[in-house]
Specification:
Layout (H helix, E strand, L loop, with lengths): L11 E8 L2 E9 L4 E6 L20 E6 L23 H14 L5 E6 L1 H12 L4 E7 L6 H8 L8 H9 L10 H8 L5 H17 L16 H16 L8 H4 L9 E6 L7 H10 L3 E6 L8 H13 L18
Helix pairs in contact: 4-6, 5-7, 6-7
């Protein structure tokens, strides 16, 4: 049975200037001569997760992680109103990924992304298919406008009515029947700090309620960090109100560019943030990918999801002709 690999620490890290006044924090772990793999975190604004290093055999992979613009250790941080988000877009993040690849001297790499990171990974792979050896996605989202509407404009409220009503009731009376994404985006940019704090609490309570069933009743521990919560809420509302700057359905149509790219998609059957239908639609236009549906899982990467992700990275581990690992080849078997 596949299990998580032991926890490891990065062997290199840095801040990379990527333009527009931004510097992205990056780190590498595992085998410096191993097969390159880059991990794209969710959110937008969740930041890298040390636990995701454990999805990769540290003897076989050179694991690259970074914090996307505005979050984690990247600067400037989106928790402050002084940080203008106008240059924080999907296409700028893709430019950052390419800048980091070139900075690290990587020719091609495996790309792994979950939740929002799966949309970003899909967009990157379609724009730069020659740089992607394999693609592993989990909690699959494809950037369709209906997906944003489902989670943030009341669709999933049919399953979480009390939680949605709390989010709605916390908005100003005249705004409660409007687009709550726009409403909370405005509140999160209000000059009054108390207004911003009330808005970030309510937004993060909503975000905390939907990853698993039954719904969580309190705030997810990650949101107890005030700066993390503010940056997360500002970034999510910023991206959602623009539908991530992705033309509706474009990433499904563009999946033809992945005809030669092998991949694995892992999705919880009870994922209410990223319903399994998203991955099913993508599998129909990306025949090189295997879709694995995990029955006892939601959106959170529980043990069952992690099990399948470890199996997926293991599938693409470099191998020598006699069947052993060849961690120095940097190529797919």
């Amino acid at each position: 049975m596949a299990t998580l690999f032991p926890a490891i620490e990065p062997y290199a890290e840095g801040l990379l200037p990527v333009g527009d006044g931004n510097r992205i924090y990056w780190e590498t772990s595992g085998n410096p001569e191993g097969k390159p793999a880059v991990v794209l975190h969710g959110g937008p604004g969740s930041g890298r997760s040390p636990g995701q290093r454990r999805l990769f055999d540290p003897e076989a992979y050179r694991v690259v992680q970074f914090d996307q613009r505005g979050c984690g250790r990247s600067t400037p941080h989106a928790s402050t109103l002084e940080t203008d988000l106008k240059d924080n877009t999907t296409w700028k993040l893709i430019e950052d990924i390419e800048s980091l690849r070139e900075h690290l001297g990587v020719e091609r790499w495996l790309v792994l992304g979950g939740s929002w990171g799966s949309t970003l990974a899909l967009a990157y792979a379609e724009l730069h298919p020659g740089r992607v050896t394999e693609l592993i996605l989990f909690g699959v989202t494809t950037g369709r406008h209906s997906e944003f509407d489902w989670l943030f404009r009341g669709g999933v409220a049919i399953l979480f009515p009390e939680q949605w009503e709390r989010l709605r009731a916390a908005a100003p009376v005249d705004d409660r029947d409007g687009d709550l994404v726009e409403v909370y985006h405005r509140l999160l940019h209000d000059p009054d700090p108390d207004t911003r704090q009330r808005a970030v609490l309510e937004w993060c309570l909503w975000e905390s309620s939907t990853p698993e069933w039954p719904p969580a009743t309190g705030l997810s521990p990650r949101f107890e960090d005030a700066d993390y919560a503010m940056a997360f809420a500002r970034l999510v509302t910023h991206y959602v109100r623009h539908n991530a700057w992705v033309e509706d359905g474009a990433l499904l149509r563009g999946a033809t560019s992945l005809a030669d790219t092998p991949g694995v998609m892992v999705n919880g059957r009870h994922d209410y943030q990223a319903p399994v239908g998203n991955a099913l639609e993508l599998s129909r236009v990306w025949p090189q990918a295997e879709l694995i549906i995990v029955d006892n899982a939601g959106h959170a990467a529980n043990e069952a999801i992690a099990f399948e992700l470890v199996r997926a990275t293991g599938r693409f581990t470099p191998a020598t002709p006699d069947g052993g690992r060849d961690s120095e080849s940097g190529q797919s078997a």
